[in-house]
Structures are given as structure tokens and as C-alpha cells.
Amino acid sequence: MQTKNIILAFILLISSHLFAQDFSASLQLDTFQIEIGDQVYLKLNLVQAENLKVQFPQFKNKIIEGIDIVSKSGIDTVSKENGKIFLRQNILITAFDDSLYTIPPFAFVSGADTVYTKSMSFDVQKAQFDSTFLSQLDTTQMLPIFDIEKPIDTPWTFKEFWQYYGLYIVLLLIAITLFFVGRYFYKRYKDNKPLFKAEQPKEPAHIIALRKLDKLKNKKLWQSGYPKEYYSELTYVLREYLENRYNINALEKTSHELIEMLRHTKLMDKELVEEFRQIFNLGDLAKFAKFNPLPDENDLSMKNAYSIIENTKIILEEKEETEMQNDAKDKTINSQKEGNDA
């Protein structure tokens, strides 16, 4: 019985050794010593049977702590011979601390079998310069070393300020405007006043014109030897009166155009149109021909101007009288109703 167990163990040992020989792995470095920051290829080599699947070691960013991976190639087939395949993966590594590193064994796995590479030393040294290189340096041209300067404090430009705070400023102005508008409306509502102030009624056209005629009359321009200035102001008052009274562009028309328009539109009686013609004909002669009208003609022009305004004005007194009569009628009707109710 003991002999059978020894023979069985010997057979298992031989079979496992033969199976393990189906693949082998090794680790290779281009050089075992570099200076800080240099790069070197770490090569993972694998020899296996063609029908075998072997998993390479997996790395992320580092081989070990201190040795960084710069790049990794794929797993390439280098050669095939006698049913064997030679595979390789190149890993570009570097280090930034001077130290003697030990690269541990890496595992290659195929099913239940695992093969390990040998460990390896990797030396990283500080950069060193030989005497020949140092002698070539011109130390007189080397710049002095200074402390790190603080950031320069530059003032903000308006563009930069607006980019950061422009939106907030606009929103603040809108909020302030809404506040005062709301306050204004609330105060008028609380005081039982209309939200919007009623527009003040404009003075009637004839009131404005008569006031200006009185002012012109008191200036006594033609009596002082200024007939041109006198007729300039007189015709302007009448043009302005026509614009305000009939809503026509009297200031932009020539004297002839204005007279013809009044004659054809029948805005005035024929007598008033003739009075208008007398004023503007003398005015054109005085302004453009340096004509000096007689005193009686100047007085007649002023009288005709008053006549035109008085005979074409809106008679407000009649409207006011009508409104008073209507109010009186309403009061009488209301008093009669109150007497009947009593």
C-alpha cells in the first residue's frame, strides 16, 4: 500500500511539472539606473503554448509607489516557433524621487497555474554634471535668483466691473424704480386721487394770440422805426393762432399759400380773408422789400389782426352759459322730486 502511494505522488509531481512548463515569464529593463525624470521601458515577456490563454499583470498608473507609468503598449506577438508563442508588452516608466527601488515579482495566470517573474532592483539618482559640462557654463550670464514676487494689484476697468456686477446693478435700478412707482400709486390711491394726474387744459388759441398782440402793441416797434420787426411779429402771431385754432401747418406755408388756403377752405368769411391779405401783403413788402408802410396802414393791420381773432375764436362764454342753464334745470327737477316725495 505504501509503494502505491509513493508511485501516485511521483506521477502527479511529474505531470504538474510538465504542465507548468507550458508557459514561462520574465521581466526586462532597458537599464537598471536612470536620473530623476528619465524614462525607460519595462518589458514583460511571455512564452506559451499556442492553445493556452495566459493573463498578463494589470497596472493602473503606477508599477509600485514611486515608479509612474507614462504609457503602455498592447500585448504583441513577437514570434512563433515549434508550437510556442513569444508575447511582449512594453511599459514606459519614470520616477521623480532618487531612491533604490525593488520591482517585485509579477504574476502571469493561466487557469489554476501561476508563474512569477523575478524581482529586480531599479536605481533612480539625482542629476549629476561632469566637470566638462560645468566648465562650459558661463556663470556671468546666469541671472540672479530672486524671491517670488507678489501678484500685481491692477485697478479694475469699467468693462471688468460691468461684466461682474452689471446684471445686479440693472436689477437694483429696476427694483428701486418699481418701489417708487408703487409707492406713488399707493399714496394716490390712499388719498382717493386718480392714479394719473389730469393734464392741465391748454389755453385757448385766441387768449394766447390776444395777449401777444397786446404785448406787441405796447412795444411800439413801427413808431420807433422798425416796421420790418413789427410785421414779422404780427404775422407770426396770426400764423401761430391759425395752427392752434384750426390745427393747420400755417408756420410752414408762404403768405400766398396761406391766403389761398383760407379762401378755398372757407375757414373765414371773405371780409376776414381780405383783412388777412392786407396784413400779409404789407408784411411781405416790409420784410423783403424794405417798404415802410404809412402810420394809418400800420394801425389798420393791428386792428385787422384783432378783428380776425375776435371773429374766429371759440366762444367759451356761450358754452359756460349753457352748462349753467343745464345745472339750474337739474336742480329744479331734483327739488320738485323731493317735494313730491315729502
Largest sheet: 6 strands, antiparallel
Shape: rod-shaped
Count of extended strands: 11
Give the termini distance in whole angstroms. Answer: 147 Å
Chart the SSEs and their pairings.
Elements: H1 2-20, E1 23-29, E2 33-35, E3 39-49, E4 62-64, E5 67-72, E6 76-81, E7 84-95, E8 99-103, E9 107-110, E10 113-116, E11 120-125, H2 131-136, H3 158-190, H4 205-219, H5 227-246, H6 255-265, H7 270-288, H8 295-312, H9 316-341
Parallel strand pairs: 2-11
Antiparallel strand pairs: 1-3, 3-7, 4-5, 5-7, 6-7, 8-11, 9-10
Helix pairs in contact: 4-5, 4-8, 5-7, 5-8, 6-7, 7-8
Verbal overview:
- This protein is an alpha+beta fold and 342 residues long.
- It folds into 3 domains: 2-125, Immunoglobulins (Immunoglobulin-like); 157-198, no CATH class; 205-316, no CATH class.
- Helices cover 49% and strands 20% of the residues.
- It has helices at 2-20, 131-136, 158-190, 205-219, 227-246, 255-265, 270-288, 295-312, 316-341, and strands at 23-29, 33-35, 39-49, 62-64, 67-72, 76-81, 84-95, 99-103, 107-110, 113-116, 120-125.
- The strands form 3 sheets. Strands 1, 3, 4, 5, 6 and 7 form a 6-stranded antiparallel sheet that branches. Strands 2-11-8 form a 3-stranded mixed sheet, with no helix packed on it.
- A hairpin with a 2-residue loop joins strand 4 (62-64) and strand 5.
- Helix 6 (255-265) runs antiparallel to helix 7.
